[in-house]
Fold this sequence. Notes:
- This protein is α+β, with helices and mostly antiparallel strands.
- 33% of the residues lie in helices and 30% in strands.
- The chain folds into 2 domains: 4-251, 4-Layer Sandwich (L-amino peptidase D-ALA esterase/amidase), CATH 3.60.70; 258-380, ArgJ beta chain, C-terminal domain (Ubiquitin-like (UB roll), Roll).
- Strands 1, 2, 3, 4, 5, 6, 7 and 9 form an 8-stranded mixed sheet that branches.
Amino acid sequence: MRSICAVRGVEAAGMKEGKYGLAVIRASGTAAATSTSNLVAAAPVLLMREAIKAGRLDAIVVNSGCANAYTGERGLADAAEMRRIAGASLGLEPERIGVASTGVIGRYLDLDLIGRQCAEVVPHLAHSEEGETAAARSIMTTDLAEKHALVEADGFTVAGICKGSGMIAPNMGTMLAFIYTDAEIGAEDLRASLRSAVRRSFNRVVVDGDESTNDSAFCTATGEAGPVPRAAFDAALEACCISLAKQIAADGEGATKLLEVQVVGAPDEAAAEAVARTVVASPLVKTAVYGEDPNWGRVIAAAGRAGVGFDPDLVSLTIGEGPTLTELVRDGTIVSDLVRAKEAMHGKRVVFSLDLAAGEGSAVAWGCDLTENYVEINGKYTT
């Protein structure tokens, strides 16, 4: 599947040995990043929060299998050494290389392994579908599928790869995203655009409600397509991030269904977002979706505890879309057809649409069902 190597100026490669992988992406340009709001931020996150202020990257190196989180001063030194190793292999200044990690918390990096893998990966860097596929596969942990997105706009391209399956909550999840564009855009504008896109995409995904220590989303602009209208760029970047976010939700640990919650009629966008995120995070909603049980009252109850003011007697709620669209509540009155509602839950995607009748704000959030397999995966994650 085409993604980052469809962007002019991007080369990628990667390898995986058991649960330990390494990806290298080479692309020079202005750069920005966002990261987890977890107080226990991983060493590579702390390192990059300072480094990204320079607003430019020439490459990114990513390891999977070890998060290098809660590792103290040694972890910071190891993250810097990982960056130095990549710089030596690429012939680049370490300060211009991004670094990210994902895997088990509370374990130290195996720098010898990273050095060997980096030496093997760099010679295979290529501007090709094979290169981006290898990179996407190498960063997977409990993911079952690679995650790619490509938006071809008018004269420029935005594309990304990411990983993420569990430990996913608003304010980023245990996800890493690497986004590239050939548009020419300054570092300050890129930071603002990325923050907005992340808020409307990755920050609206809930798999299990746990917020990770390692979340990072990087965006590098090679500039090879020249300047583009800011509004067009923002729209393309947001579309790319939403595509990746939905793929994360669909691939949630143990998941069988993608859950989408659309909220309209809220006091403002922030209020709509709060309601949508609360509903997709609800264990009761998630388990009902898994069991294809049209217990829609759980959606109303979750909306009511989101901290947003609205009149419950004016709310409308539907399930499904297109031919399966089924009304459940209309202006506060129950009109549910439970047989049709259950039919709307049979597929791989379940959609609830909630109208709060309290304003013009709207937002969408994504999640997945909660299954026995989630417990199986996480009950034995390190053993």
